[in-house]
Amino acid sequence: MSDISPAFPPVPLTLEGSFLLHQFFRFDWKAWRARAAPERKKIVADATAALQRLERANPKETNPDAPIQTALFSQLGHKGDLILVHFRDSLEALNQVELDLAQTKLYDFLDLRHSYVSIVELGLYESSRKTYEAATAKGFEAHTPEWNAEIAASLQRGSDAMAPRLFPTVPEAKYLCFYPMDRKRGEQVNWYSVPFADRQRMMHEHGLIGRRYGDVVKQIISGSIGMDDWEWGVDLFADDPVVFKKLIYEMRFDEVSAVYALFGQFFIGVRLPIEKLGGWLEGKL
After folding, report:
1. In the structure, what pLDDT confidence band is assigned to residue 36 with cuts at 50, 70 and 90?
2. Is the distance from CB of 271 to CB of 71 less than 8 angstroms?
3. pTM
4. Nearest Cα to Cα of residue 181 among 126, 123, 222, 121
5. Cα 179 to Cα 25: distance, rounded to the nearest angstrom
6. How far apart are CA 81 and CA 145, in angstroms?
7. Would you put residue 163 in left (φ > 0), alpha (ψ -120 to 50) or beta?
8. Is the pLDDT of residue 9 over 90?
9. At what angle do helices 196-212 and 242-251 cross, to 10 degrees?
10. What's the whole-number mean pLDDT along residues 154-173?
11. Which of 37, 78, 192, 269 could form a disulfide with 73 if both were Cys (CB 3.0 to 4.6 A apart)?
12. Residue 7 confidence (pLDDT) above 80
């Protein structure tokens, strides 16, 4: 495949949706056990009520019919004890989540070890070329007001069509796997210097692998360039944790991962229904 015109932007178009905040906490078990049972009971009740309001993204009351926007997970391994994942419509709303959590007594026992801020992103390698070519066919030069208006209209049509994917609820799967990642940009291997058409081809082949697992894994990709330390965050939700290993292992044989990918830490957790938080604090999953 020949590359697109050098007059076209090298950047693929993207669609953006919900903002995401991942929080990874260590729980202070020693301090918790030092509190009297009646006090612990009160703290659990208040924290459960607060988390249930956050779960449905309502700061004042719980609406059982509202979509799930916050989910709690019991984390495995030394990196932490609890994971909270929040989907919201704005950074301000995510910041309010942080503030709401900080007002709970339970927060006194939580040590925030790691966090990640990003926004749901759908990459449009497949359609960017067509969009650029359509704008050029109308006689518009790149980055002119007419060009920008044409691109904006195309993106708006895409956003309308992809709204359920751009503004998802937290999947009700049992297991979560989260990791951040970059594309290499070194002196010898640099994703961002690869011609657009080659990147398009590789991303198409990469996406085919993910789609084969679509019936057992819900994948949500979020962009974090300019928001956090890595370029993307990847959330995988499934009812069988072994499929995380199989999917990620297979993808590493794919060219875009084998040559151009860098991965951060992996975090894995088991879904913890908020109403079972009290049991978890007693050592029961």
Report:
1. very high
2. yes
3. 0.94
4. 222
5. 16
6. 51
7. alpha
8. no
9. 150
10. 96
11. 269
12. no
One of 116, 125, 132, 179 is an active-site residue; which one? 179
State the DSSP string of the chain. Answer: -PPPPTTS-SSPPEEEEEEEEEEEEEE-HHHHHTS-HHHHHHHHHHHHHHHHHHHTT-SS---TTSPP-EEEEEEPSTT-SEEEEEEESSHHHHHHHHHHHHTSGGGGGEEEEEEEEEEEEEE-HHHHHHHHHHHHHTTPPTTSHHHHHHHHHHHHHHHHHTHHHHSPPPP--SEEEEEEEEE-BSSS-BGGGS-HHHHHHHHHHHHHHHHHTTTT-EEEEEE-TTTSSSSEEEEEEES-THHHHHHHHHHTTSHHHHHHEEE---EEEEE--GGGHHHHTTT--
Amino acid at 136: T
One-letter amino acid of 114: H
Q: What is the Cα–Cα distance from 28 to 8, expressed in whole angstroms?
A: 54
User: Is the model's pLDDT at 122 over the cut of 90?
Assistant: yes
pLDDT, tens digit (0-9, with 9 covering 90-100), for 205-224: 999 999 999 999 999 999 99
The verdict on whether 260 is a catalytic residue reads no
Q: What CA–CA distance (Å, rounded) separates 238 from 243?
A: 8
CB 124 within 8 A of CB 204: no
Task: Identify the residue whose tokens are 């920008």.
Answer: 148
| DSSP letters spanning 209-232 | HHHHTTTT-EEEEEE-TTTSSSSE
pLDDT in tens, 46-96: 999 999 999 998 767 777 778 999 999 999 999 999 999 999 999 999 999
